[in-house]
Amino acid sequence: MGEAPHLSASERTSLIIAGRAALDEINLNAVPIMAGIGAASTRKSIQLAKDAAAAGADFAIAIPPGYYAGPLIADNMAALRTYFLDIAEASPIPV
């Protein structure tokens, strides 16, 4: 099986900007945007959260790193907890 295609950081940002513009254009300014910020590292997820906020996202959602790293991270509850806490602390929008 090949690796699933993922959006680049700039593609994610472009989609958020386009989504916010489309919603605003039809007077749905109050409709929130939730952006996916899951990545293989905490650092990358934090950067994606910052980019999403700057692009107009209101909330962020992250996939656990175990999705990428398999049981190495998923079986380590302390590392998993730290991953989410670090992202939540650094994110300018709620995660």
TrEMBL record:
Record bears the keyword NADP: no
Highest taxon of source: Eukaryota
Gene Ontology molecular function: any one: 4-hydroxy-tetrahydrodipicolinate synthase activity
Record's protein name: Putative mitochondrial 4-hydroxy-2-oxoglutarate aldolase
Organism per entry: Lachnellula arida
Keywords, sorted A to Z: Lyase
